[in-house]
Amino acid sequence: MRFAEIEVDRVRLSEIEQAQQRMGDGRYGICVDCGEDIPRERLLARPMAIRCASCQAAAELHRRRHDAAI
How many other C-beta atoms are found inside a 10 Å radius of the C-beta of residue 36? Predict the structure, then answer.
């Protein structure tokens, strides 16, 4: 159980560091897939988001299909 908590914390810290890097590069709030602005509401709910809601849904669907095929 402790190792799972440590892993969650490690992933979250990595996401925060990546968000800070995107801020420094001027890429924060821009979807990595479509290049459109990520809506403010989404960033308020999930500050480390790298995709808009539509692209995130598509990425999750692709991941589920890939995982099901394995």
Answer: 13
Residue 11: its H or E element: helix 2-25
Beta-carbon contacts of 59 under 8 Å, excluding residues fewer than 6 positions away, are 33, 51
CATH of residue 20: 1.20.120.910
pLDDT tens, position by position, 24-34: 999 999 999 99
Domain span including residue 39:
2-69
Residue 5 CB neighbours (<10 A): 9
Question: What pTM does this model have?
Answer: 0.81
